[in-house]
Amino acid sequence: MNVTELRGDGAHAHEYRWALPSVLLGDPREGRRVRRSTRDWIVDTLLFLVACGFTFLSLAELESQHQPEPLVAIEQVMGALACVAVWARRRWPVALAIVTALLASYLELVGGASVVALFTVAVHRPFKISGPVTLFNLLTLAPYILLRPQTDLDRMETGALGGAIVLTVFAWGIVIRARRQLVWSLRERADSAAEEAKRLERERIAREMHDVLAHRISMLSLHAGALEFRPDAPPGEIARAAGAIRTNAHLALQDLREVIGVLRHSAPDGDDVVPDRPQPTLADLPALVEECRQAGMDVRFEPAVGDAPEGLGRNLYRIVQEALTNARKHAGGVPVTVSVEGERGKGLSVEVRNPLWARPGARIPGAGAGLIGLTERAELAGGHLEHGATPEGEFVVSAWLPWPVEATQEVDA
């Protein structure tokens, strides 16, 4: 099972997210077997050898106690079985720790496997489980001290040594678990940051497609409407309208190809790189206004600012473009006034207003997402945007964007 499978979606995503650390620590999920990696095999082999080493070291202690032969045989069999059982520590860590601790309350040679099992529980289980298991291990020291004959150490020293071993192993396992959870958390944060960056980039490209294509398609609709309502127009006007339709359709396809090319672009090393397509700035506003005039719109342009940083001018251009597109959609044929003013340190303001009344004709449908996108664009740039009808019977779109004194380049929102 990999990380991607556990992330999930919808209602199960939160559950999977909390279950992930345990899986990374090698626990089975829903009864399914966990495949050991190469590292897991190495670790399990080392811990098996550690358990065997403790068992062989305890043989000398067992021989010095002069126990009956049947008890010695039982000790050796149970010690060997406990060492073999260490290989099951990933599947049943808690059960193994409890059983080995219970056996180690009297049997000498099970102690090594009991230490390994306790370490496994401390690493693979939360404190609410590993804490009681550790306490149980400490309690099992009492019958061992009382029932087993002591040689080199008295009962007090034996209890202190056993307690120190249990607590040290438990603390070591807790530290390793905390480190692994920290690594997992950092990895999750990095993945979340990458996903968020991709989401923001998709939103940016979506805004770009909307701004560009809505403008071009509204121009197509405007020229097509003129041909529809004036079929008796002079051939020269019909030819100009048809030429404008062809030009705007060509530009719309070109813009769409550029945006799709951005989506498909990938660096040779496999890392996704999304280059910026050529963007308009404040200096391109006169060309936009002139294009609208050639399409038959009555646009009055009142610029009161010379130049502005590239990012700031780009955002303002998009606001004016979308406002003119909305005017063509919902109030075709009415005069539109575009006012731009501002200076460094005080900000840049733009206002697009037009009467609410419109000439008869088919209106271009719209979803209302353009003004929402403009509001988001202005807020991301640190400014604000307002729109709506006025008591004077006009529809106004007004925006203000910050223009820092020391800034020469602004980040495009």
From TrEMBL:
Pfam families xref list: HATPase_c (PF02518), HisKA_3 (PF07730)
GO MF annotation: an example: kinase activity
InterPro entries (UniProt xref): HATPase_C_sf, HATPase_dom, Sensor_HK_TwoCompSys, Sig_transdc_His_kin_sub3_dim/P
Catalyzed chemical reaction(s): ATP + protein L-histidine = ADP + protein N-phospho-L-histidine
Sequence ranges assigned to domain Histidine kinase/HSP90-like ATPase in this UniProt record: 314-403
EC number: 2.7.13.3
Domain Signal transduction histidine kinase subgroup 3 dimerisation and phosphoacceptor positions: 201-266
Keyword vocabulary terms for this entry: ATP-binding, Kinase, Membrane, Nucleotide-binding, Phosphoprotein, Transferase, Transmembrane, Transmembrane helix, Two-component regulatory system
Chain ranges passing through the membrane: 41-59, 71-88, 95-123, 129-147, 159-178
Gene3D superfamilies found in the cross-reference section: 1.20.5.1930, Histidine kinase-like ATPase, C-terminal domain (3.30.565.10)
UniProt protein name: histidine kinase
The organism of origin for this protein: Nonomuraea antimicrobica
